[in-house]
Amino acid sequence: MSVGHRFGSWTPYVATGWTESKDDNERTGAFIPGVVPESILNYQRNEYSVGTRWDITPGVAIKADITHVRGLDKGFGNLNTAYMLESNASSTNVYTLKIDSAF
How far, in Å, CA of 72 to CA of 13, rounded? Predict the structure, then answer.
């Protein structure tokens, strides 16, 4: 769920989300045999985001976002934990800055 409001060329927003895999007990074996265990697909987590969009010109925008993810102790899902600062973290922050353009 997200809410935002446009103020001229700026659009600040807040968002929240919840994700949970539902077929944990139905899968067996390895996701990629010998490399990735099936348990990587088992997860449940919550996300909270705040960000803004700035339309520089028609068709070009800069977007900035901070997302806090909780629940990593219930499975990492598709997150690559090798790049996390703490090895047993139950939460993490994701910072995003990007330029979108349409032509």
Answer: 24
Cα 42 to Cα 24: distance, rounded to the nearest angstrom: 6
SS (H, E, C) 28-81: CCEEECCCEEHHHHCCEEEEEEEEEEEEEECCEEEEEEEEEEECHHHCCCCCCH
Question: Token pair for residue 40?
Answer: 């990587």
Supply the pLDDT for residue 79. 64
**Residue whose tokens read 């629940």:** 71
- In this prediction, residue 19 carries a pLDDT of 82
Question: Within 10 A of 72 (CB to CB), how many other CB atoms are there?
Answer: 20
Separation between Cα atoms, residue 103 and residue 83, nearest integer Å? 34
Residue 42 or 45, more confident: 45
Asked if residue 27 has pLDDT above 80, the reply is no
Place of tokens 């102790």: 73
pLDDT of residue 71: 79
Q: What angle do CA 89, 51, 7 make, to 5 degrees?
A: 165
